[in-house]
Amino acid sequence: MKNLRNVFPILSHNTYLNTAASGILYDSLLDFRQECDLEFILHGSKIRDHQQMFLKNVRQTIGSFLGASEENIILTPNFSLGINTILNGLEKKRKILLLDTDYPSLNFAVTNKGFEVCYAQVNASLEQNIVEAIEKHAPDILAISIIQYISGIMIDLNFLQTLKATYPKLLIIADGTQFCGTKDFDFDSSGIDILGCSGYKWLLGGYGNGFFLFKNEILERITPNSYKKSALEMDYDDSYTNLQARFQCGHLDNFNFGSLQHSLKFLTQIGILNIENSIKEVSDYARVELSKLELLDKEVMKRPVHSSIYNIRGDEKLFNTLKKAHIITSLRGSGIRISLHFYNTKEDIDKLIDNL
Can you tell me the distance from the alpha carbon of 278 to that of 281, in angstroms, rounded to the nearest whole number? Predict the structure, then answer.
């Protein structure tokens, strides 16, 4: 999508291969954010006179983008706050299955709260490893990232549907922060019960916004009875006592959630299928070229389908060499991580290869 590159100022002087760390700002989002601050300067607290309707509209936009019902969506400043709120309300006797090298915001949130934990290994046989761990440990919950942040290995979404059908009582919680915005996805027909996401990466929403999607009745199931009892006893309006309020407490910022909504509309205008196809084309090209140099892990090469995140062999010296060439990447795990969005091109990969 070369014709879209000129709306991202950073691309005029950098080869940006780092969306897995942070999405980038584009022209119309900057215009929106400046207008939002101008409204605040001119009108003060009046900008929040219709706050509940504004937040409802944001949830509707998220639901339309990801195939979820507005009433089953909660807003949160980031994934970490949302997942900790969920875990804080669960009984500690529940056993949770994690992936051994998954994102710390997920794994540490679970392990530091006293749950019984078991693990499945992340490698080429990821799905089979999960099945074997379920059969061996009989967990109550599976909590995973859809895409692994270091290796880029992506769980088979059809596998999750089959898994849910086979183990209907298994609660499946997924972190979609490295996934949402990369592929056409319908949450309601997926095998996932709870999907959380921060909006600052592939959704290009900037920092300070995120959301969680719930299947019907799941939010009710994971809400502590103590919260429900207190809510019934309080003489407040619904914005303080409904099930969503446990997550949406305090102030939710118009600037941040307006930015997320603006970007979701921007991505919708481009077309999520166009985005998916563009990512796949560049990602497949990168996989071929990097494999020629034997820079990709063998476990990744064994996977029939992969995300657009790759971890290539390299150290801090190579990372700094790329940085001097204005190629932006991340040091992750034992290598250098690159991540490709729709604004990346085959020419970006060629430049990377030339500097390797």
Answer: 5
Say how far residue 171 (Cα) sits from the centre of its chain.
Answer: 19
Non-local CB neighbours of 345 within 8 Å, separated by 6+ positions: 2, 5, 282
Distance CA 196, CA 288 (A): 32
Could you tell me the sign of the dihedral formed by the alpha carbons of 25, 27, 29, 32, in that order?
positive
The yes-or-no verdict on residue 183 having pLDDT over 60 is yes
Q: What are the angstrom distances between the C-alpha of 325 and each of 136, 225, 311?
A: 49, 56, 19
Determine the 3-state secondary structure of 84 from DSSP: helix
The one-letter amino acid code at 15 reads T
Structural domains of the chain, with CATH: 2-27+271-355 (3.90.1150.10), 31-268 (3.40.640.10)
Relative to beta strand 210-214, strand 194-198 is antiparallel
User: How much is the mean pLDDT over the chain?
Assistant: 93
Amino acid, single-letter form, for residue 309: I
- The helix/strand/coil state of 49 is coil
Residues 6+ apart with CB under 8 A from 349: 282, 285, 286, 289
Give yes or no for a contact between 17 and 329, defined as CB atoms under 8 angstroms apart: yes
CA distance 36 to 340: 30
DSSP code per residue over 128-192 = HHHHHHHHHH--SEEEEESB-TTT--B--HHHHHHHHHHSTT-EEEEE-TTTTTSS---GGGSS-
Judged by phi (left if over 0) then psi (alpha if -120 to 50, else beta), residue 60 lies in alpha
Distance of alpha carbon 322 from its chain centroid, rounded? 26
330 phi and psi angles, rounded to 5 deg:
-135, 145
Pick the closest to residue 107 from 79, 138, 134 (CA basis): 79
**Nearest 10 degrees: CA dihedral of 22, 66, 213, 140?**
-90
State the pLDDT at residue 245. 80
Instruction: Kindly state the average pLDDT of the residues 296-320.
Output: 95
How many other C-beta atoms lie within 10 A of the C-beta of residue 6?
A: 12
Look at residues 305, 290, 282, 281 and name the one whose alpha carbon lies nearest to residue 152: 305
